[in-house]
Amino acid sequence: MKQTDRITTAFMSLREQMLSLAERITGNRDDAADAVQDAFVKLWQQREQYESASHARGAGMITVRNSSIDLARRSSHASELPVEQAADAAIETSNEETDAAYQQVRRIIDNELSPRQRAIIDMREIEEMEFEDIAKRLGMQPAAVRVELSRARKRVREMYHNRKKNNS
Question: Of the ranges 23-32, 92-101, 115-124, which one carries the lowest mean pLDDT score?
């Protein structure tokens, strides 16, 4: 995957999270959209510096946070909380929610999927391997890897939503 594709993919996969974070910091959806756009422009200008999609994603969230703080400082002179404290609180809440969801998904993967499905998910999502490389490692065809990954994701998604619904 080309570097520009990696940056674009990383940004698009995080866009909603970035908007949510920016909105909590700025308090305004339009300002949040501006902060996300500013962040993407900054990320794009520095795209050669990112070694992987995960590196780009991390930099993206930090850049959105900083852009949101800058925008909030410019647009709001009086605030109940200093902007830095509001941003830190927003990130803590977001990280706690994200961590809890990640842990629940990881438990589903570890306990409910077949060993092959677990291996495919880990190789694709964590190690970011290409389908052809996964297929070679597991002695499968790339199309079979795609099908198995799709089934595993579907099962995880269904189980996650069912558990979430039952806990509500």
Answer: 92-101
